[in-house]
Specification:
single chain; alpha/beta; Lyase, Ornithine Decarboxylase, Chain A, domain 1; 3 domains; seven-stranded mixed β-sheet; about 25% helix
């Protein structure tokens, strides 16, 4: 494997690259390439020369093939994703996994830059819940390289993950401060988000007894989350900012309602927070999440917090999504069945075929985080098979998803071993969330760890 990778990175030679065993190349291939009989080649980049595929060979190219393709009886899949400049793998091997989850780190970086340009305030990244299920280590590392200086995480283990890849970053822990965790906060260099007066008293005691100079954020309940200090409590603590070493490095709240940017409840909460900020003169303030960033500068204050939009979710539902898609989820077709009318599709829930149907069973279900439609959900779920939208025929079981491929133009695209795309550029997270009456955040964070994960930049 190492000699094959090294050869792929050298200047193109006259002799072709001969693949005589199953191989995986992280980067682009400059030479003409010959894949011999029954061998497998996975190129996580471009093939810049020609490509010859012998009978029984299986070739996957994440990028493009620039030269002539000669296929003598093998299988070729070209994703045309462009050059994969950097690839990191996680989870079970691709051949053993129930599906493949690809995370485009370049698009996360672009989304961060897009949001940063919408404000004059500092743009922080919310990477809580394992970066919304996308993987906190690779995501935080990319954001740090992009220029992000402040991160919000769920807990101390996530703070450690961010610190490992962003040594100079400011890290806020949203789940607050617990008794006895002070030394861990000091070790990591993280700052707690204080949500009640008891936490603040515990934090004051730790700082006073240890002399640690780290700061904290005060979270104010400006909505209906029931998490955070009340407006009255926050106002009562305000005089402490006039004393030295008051330790409050950020005053923060959030906008709860996102239906419209002119919602009267948002306006009221914005005004309350603005009045409170005057009492905390000199302390940076943060109110806007992804929705607040794109809805107008009046809620930006000193720091904005980019969350779901970083991962491709639409920060302004009802308008065109300015964010690039980040994930692609593909799962393997396990079996294809022909059903006559009246035959069960999902016997455990009483779902039967109403007509002759060709059904592809895909190796991903609710155990992997694929959502089950809510009762009364009228939205239609779809998957991409052979480049064509096909309806999902019924709710997922723990491990399987039934897809109706009856009207598939190329029936050979639906056969065991082929891949169906469940989430991607053609079927986005927001579409899927709408169809099951859920949210993109919930779907993202539930995607399981049985997938083979590919983190890449282009």
């Amino acid at each position: 494997m190492s000699s094959l990778v090294a050869r792929s990175e050298q200047r193109a030679e006259h002799e072709p690259l001969l693949v005589s065993s199953s191989s995986d190349i992280h980067g682009s291939v400059l030479n003409d390439t010959i894949v011999q009989r029954n061998c497998t080649l996975h190129v996580r980049g471009n093939v810049l020369g020609g490509l010859t595929i012998e009978p029984g060979a299986n070739v996957v190219v994440e990028g493009s093939v620039d030269g002539k393709i000669v296929n003598r009886g093998g299988r070729l899949l070209v994703h045309n994703k462009g050059l994969a400049a950097s690839v990191t793998l996680d989870g079970p091997p691709e051949a053993e996994a129930c599906g493949v989850l690809k995370i485009n780190l370049s698009n996360i970086a672009t989304n961060f830059a897009t949001l940063s340009k919408r404000t004059e305030a500092e743009c922080a990244a919310v990477v809580k819940a394992n970066a919304y299920g996308c993987g906190i280590g690779p995501v935080a590392a990319m954001l740090a390289k992009t220029g992000c200086k402040t991160f919000f995480v769920s807990d101390l283990p996530e703070a450690r993950s961010v610190r490992a890849v962003a040594p100079g970053a400011v890290i806020y822990v949203l789940n607050g401060f617990y008794s006895g965790t002070g030394p861990a906060f000091a070790e990591v260099g993280a700052r707690p988000v204080i949500n009640n007066s008891m936490e603040l008293a515990e934090w004051d005691f730790f700082v006073g007894s240890s002399g640690w100079p780290g700061g904290c954020a005060l979270n104010v309940d400006t909505g209906e989350s029931s998490l955070g200090l009340s407006i009255d409590e926050a106002a009562a603590f305000a005089p402490r900012v006039h004393s030295p070493n008051h330790c409050i490095s950020l005053l923060m709240g959030r906008l709860e309602y996102q239906e419209t940017s002119h919602n009267p409840l948002n306006e009221r909460r914005l005004n309350l927070f603005r009045d409170l900020r005057r009492l905390y003169n000199g302390v940076p303030a943060s109110l806007a999440n992804s929705f607040g960033i794109v809805s107008g500068a009046k809620a930006h204050f000193d720091l904005v917090r980019a969350g779901g939009a970083l991962y491709g979710l639409n920060p302004a539902p009802g308008a065109a999504n300015p964010m690039l898609p980040v994930i692609e989820l593909r799962a393997r077709i396990m079996q294809v069945r022909d059903l006559t009318a009246g035959k069960p599709i999902a016997a455990d829930i009483g779902l039967t075929a109403k007509r002759h149907m060709r059904l592809a069973l895909v190796s991903t279900g609710y155990a992997d985080g694929y959502p089950r439609p809510a009762n009364g959900s009228s939205g239609k779920l779809h998957a991409m098979v052979g480049g064509q939208r096909c309806p999902v025929a019924g709710p997922p079981s723990a491990d399987l998803l039934p897809i109706d491929v009856t009207n598939l133009l190329d029936q050979s695209a639906a056969r065991p071993g082929e891949m169906a795309t469940l989430i991607g550029a053609e079927i986005g997270l927001d579409e899927l969330a709408t169809a099951v009456k859920s949210s993109g955040r919930e779907i993202l964070t539930r995607l399981g760890h049985r997938f083979h994960r590919i983190y890449y930049t282009i």
